[in-house]
From TrEMBL:
Top-level taxon of origin: Eukaryota
One of the protein's GO biological processes: signal transduction
Gene that this sequence comes from: Hypp5915
Ranges occupied by ARM repeats: 305-347
Organism for this UniProt entry: Branchiostoma lanceolatum (Common lancelet)
Protein name, UniProt field: Hypp5915 protein
Membrane spanning residue stretches: none
Length: 621
């Protein structure tokens, strides 16, 4: 196979181009948070100016052989050295984000392709193998910045560099010279770093990354084996999961990962053989997430002794390390056989309880979730027997919508249409924290049916898995809703939704037909009035705020009385139907401002009042 594109990749490339057009969601920190971080790190200004100069110089001299040597100097002084001088993870992330912003991923990709045309090992053009030295500097800069910046990692794949280095793996894997080994190592690190970015999942699969990486599970270098295993854990999908790892290779790789992990948590710099404790914990959590339907990886990891070093990592002073450790414990606890071992591990429960009170919401939520699963609270809700329930109890039940936050807009739209069709709907629109697992458990227990919005992000979410477990424990019926066109459920999610009929809301053009079918499938379950017409969804295209805008003072007063709002919320007394319509629209279009307004101008003083008003507004009709 030559250095160009193989014919076998042409179809995948066409699919990738479509993916690139769809891939618009931001990665890394949001712009406001990043601006705050940049303001807190003025020392980065010089590095950013000089990296910009280097990138612009490279952009201006792509395909120019005479400037290769000067570009080596710029890469060394303006990018590579600056990166190595940075002391914190945040500084390195910000520099990587800056490179993503100025288009460095595209420049690096074009320049590596140019160097490839010259010949990676050209000794005749320049003394000291300058082409090779330049190649090494560019690739190591990419390795460094993809390691620290998810934004840069996403831009690298979009720019086509993942395709270039996958070709290198195809071409240089079986060569024994040192140059080839260095190329393979840098290619593996680039793909590994990029695989950890969720937005790259489909892009890498479109490049057939999984089958092209499989041979490296048998590589002579255990570090390459481990990088391969961790990469595959991030990007393996349902159709090729069974191809990935033999039992013998799995044991060897897990043994190596755990050996490195144990060492990393017991040395001052928290690193072993080039791997940080943070990335090893993240990889362990991913191995446990992207699992078989029987959760075999979770069981093997705990049997091989992963829990003690994870408990040790929870003691780390850095919040990211704490978060990864707690998240891995939570993920492992979904296997029933693991819970006893985790509960019996000295210090495990005590540290989880301590981190439950962390001021950092993500850590607190993860610790709460882990304790929720470990202590079996999800089993407190009794199974229902639909044959023994009386009509009154059935009429009290609601339709619950379970979704990942990335697909909130679709889920909220479905909830509105179902309410208009006469259903009682339970949906968490506010991303409540802390007590949400308890509320979720009650919501599942009292649901007539749960609509599960199927997506890869739902599969990866530990909170969503907890909801799925609650459905299983309570024997609550589940209806799968497709919100991500290209994703087919695997692992635990495939078990939850089974082989039932999907209702496809992934594209707007099919949503109306999907809603009609969904209402028919739900039937009278969860209806406020069992006599309501199942065809109420025919007016889905009407503006849901129209009726509110036409409300009279008497209508508003009746609504406030029905939901007992007057006594509890002082700022609501003079509100009009038109204002309610505006607030409901604001809630969907600008939720952050909506909640700020309620707290600052409507006399709402706590979570209970906030929940009460939001519920009343959602059900105003």
């Amino acid at each position: 196979m030559g250095c160009g594109t193989s014919q076998s990749l042409q179809y995948s490339q066409n699919k990738s181009k479509k993916r690139l057009q769809q891939s618009t969601r931001a990665t890394g920190t949001d712009s406001r948070r990043e601006a705050q971080l940049l303001a807190a790190h003025p020392e980065l200004k010089k590095a950013m100016v000089e990296t910009t100069k280097a990138v612009e110089y490279m952009r201006a001299h792509v395909n120019d052989e005479e400037h290769v040597e000067s570009i080596v100097d710029l890469l060394d002084k303006n990018i590579y050295s600056h990166y190595l001088e940075l002391e914190t993870r945040t500084q390195r992330m910000l520099l990587g984000n800056h490179l993503a912003k100025i288009g460095a991923a595209t420049v690096f990709t074009e320049y590596i392709r140019f160097l490839k045309q010259l010949g990676y090992f050209s000794k005749k053009l320049w003394r000291n193998d300058v082409v090779w030295i330049c190649t090494d500097f560019v690739r190591q800069s990419v390795v460094n910045c993809t390691d620290s910046s998810p934004k840069f990692g996403h831009e690298v794949v979009k720019a086509g560099l993942a395709e270039v280095v996958l070709d290198d793996l195809d071409n240089f894997a079986n060569k024994d010279d040192n140059y080839s080994k260095v190329l393979v190592a840098s290619a593996m690190h680039i793909i590994y770093n990029c695989s950890r970015v969720v937005e790259n999942y489909e892009l890498l699969n479109d490049l057939n990354a999984v089958p092209r990486l499989l041979p490296f599970l048998e590589h002579e270098d255990p570090q390459i084996q481990t990088i391969t295993a961790l990469t595959l854990a991030y990007i393996t999908d349902k159709k090729n999961k069974q191809l990935v790892m033999s039992e013998e290779t799995q044991k060897k790789v897990v043994s190596y990962i755990l050996r490195r992990f144990r060492e990393a948590v017991n040395v001052p710099n928290w690193r072993s053989d080039g791997f940080s404790a943070l990335e090893l914990a993240s990889g362990i959590a991913q191995l446990a997430t992207n699992d078989t339907e029987e959760d075999a990886n979770k069981l093997v990891l705990v049997q091989e002794g992963v829990v003690p070093p994870l408990v040790k990592l929870m003691e780390h002073s850095d919040e990211e390390e704490q978060l990864q450790a707690v998240g891995a414990i939570w993920q492992l606890s979904f296997h029933e056989d693991n819970r006893k071992k985790i509960l019996e591990e000295p210090g495990a429960v005590e540290k989880l309880k301590k981190l439950k009170d962390s001021p950092y919401e993500e850590i607190s939520d993860s610790a709460t979730g882990a304790l929720y699963v470990l202590t079996g609270k999800g089993k407190d809700h009794p199974q229902r027997d639909s044959e023994e329930e009386d009509d009154t109890r059935r009429r009290q039940r609601h339709v619950m919508i379970s979704y990942n936050w990335d697909h909130q807009k679709i889920a909220v739209k479905i909830s509105k249409q179902l309410r208009r069709a006469g259903y009682r709907v339970w949906i968490d629109e506010t991303n409540m924290r802390g007590s949400i697992l308890e509320a979720m458990g009650e919501a599942v227990s009292n649901a007539a049916v749960v609509l599960v919005c199927v997506s890869r992000q739902y599969f990866l979410s530990k909170s969503c898995r907890a909801e799925g477990n609650a459905c299983h424990v309570t024997n609550t019926p589940v209806i799968p809703i497709k919100v991500e066109k290209t994703y087919n459920p695997d692992g635990w999610l495939a078990v939850l939704v089974g082989a039932g009929l999907y209702f496809d809301f992934s594209e707007p053009k099919g949503a109306k037909a999907a809603m009609k079918g969904l209402v028919k499938e739900i039937g009278s379950r969860g209806k406020a009035d069992a006599r309501a017409n199942d065809d109420d969804d025919d007016d889905d295209d009407e503006d849901p705020e129209t009726d509110l805008r036409n409300w009279t003072t008497a209508d508003v007063d009746k609504w406030m009385t029905e939901f007992n709002l007057k006594k509890d919320i002082s700022g609501i007394a003079e509100i009009t139907g038109a204002q309610l319509a505006f607030l409901r629209s604001l809630k969907e279009q600008a939720p952050e401002f909506f909640y700020q307004y309620l707290l600052n101008h409507m006399g709402i003083t706590g979570l209970e009042q906030l929940t009460k008003f939001t519920h009343a507004l959602d059900n105003a009709r």
